[in-house]
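Archive entry. Fields below.
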Amino acid sequence: MRPCGEMILHGRGARKSGLLMRLVAENLGGERNGEVLFSGLGFSVAAGEALLVTGLNGSGKSTLLRIIAGLLPPSEGSLQMEALGDEYGSIADAAHYIGHLNAMKPALTLRENLEFWRQFGGAGPGRGRRSIDDALDAVGLAGIDDLPFSYLSAGQKRRASIARLLVVHRPLWLLDEPTSSLDSQSEQRFGQLMRDHLGDGGLIVAATHLPLQLGKSREIRLGAEQHAS
Amino acid sequence: MNSAASRSGRWVDIANPTRFLDLAGRLLPWLAGLSTLALVAGLWMSFQAPDDYQQGSTVKIMFIHVPFAWLSMMCYTIMTLAALGTLVWRHPLADVSAKAAAPIGAVFTALALITGSLWGKPMWGTWWVWDARLTSVFVLFLMYLGIIALNRAMDDAAKAARATAIITLVGFINIPIIKFSVDWWNTLHQPASVLRAGGSTIDGSMLRPLLVMALGFTLLFFTLHVMAMRNEIWRRRITAMRRIAARGAERGRAE
Amino acid sequence: MMALFVRDVRLGLRAGGGALVAVLFFLAVIAIVPFAVGPDLKLLARIGGAMLWIGALLASLLGLDRLFQADRDDGSLDLLIMADRHLLPVTVLVKCLAHWFVSVLPLVLAAPLLGLFMNMEPKAIGATTLTLLVGTPAITFIGAVGAAVAVALPRGGLLVSIIILPLTIPVLIFGVSAAYGAMDASAAFLPPFLILAAITLFFAVLGPIASAAALRGSAD
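PREDICTED_STRUCTURE:
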C-alpha cells in the first residue's frame, strides 16, 4: 500500500518522488534465546517523525532495534520501508545504527575511525553528508581528532559515535540508548542534531529510558504485560 | 656534604627523566664521535691486518662477527640488570632502559648470525649447522623478539615492564649456555680464543684490530641505547600529553 | 572497500604486533625441528619443505580467531553486516586479504631464511616459498569460515584451529607435493602447483560466502 494520501509536504522531507519514506511494522514479534519478548507490535514512522521505544530493562528495546536493523530476524510479522527509493538496497542500508558499542577502533585516531566509516558508507548523495571537521565540531570534539580513540573519555567516545551519524547520510537513525554517558550539555546538542535530522525529512527510532530532547515524538512502551505476569 | 651523599644525590638526579634527557643531550655527541673514531680506526686496522694462512681474507669477517656476538650477550646482560632494577629497586629508568635495549640487541644478534652464516659458508660449506653455539645464539635471537612482542602486546607500560622483566630474568640462563657452549659440547664453532684462562690464542696483529672494533661497536651500542631511551621517554611524554589534551578539550568546551 | 583494507592493515600493524608473533611462532616451530629429528643436515634438507609448510600452516592459524571477533567486540561487525551496499562476502574477502597481507605474507617472506636453517637447496627454497605464496591465502579463506562460526565464542581460538585444520589438509598435500616436485626430478612440479592455485581460487569464493552466511546467523 503506498501512502498516496500523505502528500502533505513535510518541511524539506518530501522526496523527489513526492512520496514520504515510511517505516511500517505489522504484527511484529521478537524473541531472544527462545524467549518471546514482544509480539503483535504494529507501528509506523514517517519521514520527519521520531518513535521512542521505552520499557523496562529486558523488555526487548534493543531486540526491536536490531530487528529493524536487519541484524536479527523477526519471529513473526513484517517490516517495510515505503518509498525507499533506488539509493538504498534495504532498510538496513538506509539506516544508521548506534548500539551499546561505539564501533570504533581504539588503536586508530578519532579521525581515522570517522574517515573509515565515511568511506565505507559510500560517497552517495552529498545531501546531509558533512565533512569530518564539521561533524566533529557539531559534537564538540574539534581539536582532538588526531588522538587515538582509546584516549577519549566515555562521553567523548559516545559523541564520536554520534559524529558517525553525520559524516554519511542515512534517512533512518536507529539509536539504542544514544545518550548514555553524555553530559547535559552534550545531550542538548544531540537533541538539536536529532531535530535537524527530523526537519530534514529523516526518521528516528530510539530506545531509551531517559527523555530525549526531541520535542514532539511518539512513544511505544514494550513489555508491560510480560512483566505483569 | 660528604662524597657518598653527593654521589647518591647524583644517582637520584639521573633517575629523574628530565635530568636524564639533559645528560643524554650532552653525552650523545661525544659517544657518537668516539664510536665513529673507534670504528674508522678499527676498520682501517682490520684491513691492515694479515690474512689467515688457512682462511685467507674471509677471516676479516671475524672483526665484525665477534663484536656483534659479544654485544648480543652484553645487551642481554644489560637488560637483565635493568630487569632487576625494575623488579627490585623500582628504578624509573630501568624499564625504559630494558625496552630500549631489546630491539638493538635483536639487531646485533641478527647481525652476528648473518655474519657467522656468511663466514660459515666458505669455511664449513654450509650456511647453517645446528650446533650448540649457533643454536643457543639463535635461541637468544628468538628471546629478544619474544620480549619485544610481549612488551608491545601490553598497553600499560608499568605492567609490560614487570612482565618483560620477569621473562628477561628467566631467559638469562641462556647467556652462560652461549658462552660455554663451545667448551661443554664438541662443536664445529671454534672455542673461545680471546677471553680464556691462560691467555689469548690469537695473534697480536689480529687481536688489536679486533679489540678496537669491539670498543667501537660497544660505543655505538651505548650511543644507540641512550638515543633509544631518550626516544622512549619522549614517547611516554607525548602519550601523557595527549591524554591531557583529551581531557583539556572537555574543559575548553565547558567554558 | 579499499578503506576497509587500509583500516585492517593499519590495525594489524599498529595494535600489538600480531604479525611479529606469528613470525616468531614460525621461527620457533622450525627451530625445534632439528632438536626433534637430530641435526642431520641431509635429513633436514629432505624434510625442510614439509616442515616449512607445517610451520607456516600453524603460524597462519594463530591470529585467525580474531579476524571477526575484534570487530564484534567493538560493535563494528554489526555495521559491516548492515551495509548492504557492499556484498557481505566481498567485505569478508577484503578482510581476509588484509589479514593475509599483514599476518601471513611476513611468514612467506621469512620462509627462505628458515629454508637456510633447514639446509635446503636454493631451488627447493624458491619452490617452497612460491607454493607458500600461492597456497597460504587458501588457509586464510578456509580459516575465515571457522572464525565466522566461532565468532560468538569468547575463547574460540583453539576451536577455530581444530575446525579448520582438517579442511586445510588438501592445501598442505598439494603445497608440499609441488615443493617436492621442484626438488626431485622424478616428481612433477606444475600439476600440483596448478591444483594448489585452483584450491586457493576456489576457497576465495567459497570461504567468504560461507563466512558471510555464518556471520549473518551469528548476530544476536
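CURATOR_NOTE: The first helix of chain C runs from residue 2 to 14.
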